[in-house]
Design a protein that fits this description.
The protein is an alpha+beta fold. The chain has 6 helices and 4 strands; from the N terminus they run H-H-E-E-E-H-H-E-H-H. The protein has a single domain, classed as Trna Endonuclease, Chain: A, domain 1 (3-Layer(aba) Sandwich).
Length: 147
């Protein structure tokens, strides 16, 4: 991380106030802790593939040091099928960077009568399954290339 970005991160953290969805994030974090899912909260990440000027994004959560989770609401991000422009850019950045991303949209979960915490756990397990499959396939391909 460059020195300039370290000062940007410091400035961001210094100005940070409690998010509007902090109580929902508290609930999700408690749920992850109870499920024994390793969790980091409100982590600023840097990736050269991000299209933001400073190459930074803040993940609401990073689960198991690899899976990023964003908690969205309609008011702030739009809905899942039609996110606002800023959210589309964020989602594209994560995809471009190859970072697994789970989006839990509070309003969509409520519309479908889904508990957000249970939905987040389910989506986490789904992403872990994908990562395990990819890693196993990569190992097979590497082994076959050696033989």
């Amino acid at each position: 991380m460059s020195r300039g970005n370290k000062s940007i991160i410091h400035a961001i953290k210094k100005k940070q106030t409690r998010n509007a969805d902090a109580s929902k994030l508290d609930e999700l974090q408690l749920h992850f802790n109870n499920q024994r899912i390793p969790v980091q909260r409100e982590v600023i990440i840097q990736n050269s593939k991000f299209n933001t000027p400073n190459k930074l994004h803040e993940s609401d959560f990073i689960l198991d040091k690899q899976i990023h989770l964003q908690h969205d609401t309609y008011k702030t991000h739009g809905d899942l099928k039609n996110p606002d422009a800023k959210t589309k850019k964020r989602n594209a950045d994560y995809l471009r960077a190859g970072l697994p991303l789970i989006i839990i949209n509070q309003d969509s979960a409520k519309l479908h009568n889904l508990d957000e915490c249970d939905l987040a756990s389910y989506r986490y397990e789904e992403e872990v399954g994908k990562l395990v499959s990819v890693r196993e396939e990569d190992m097979r391909m590497e082994f076959n290339a050696r033989v």
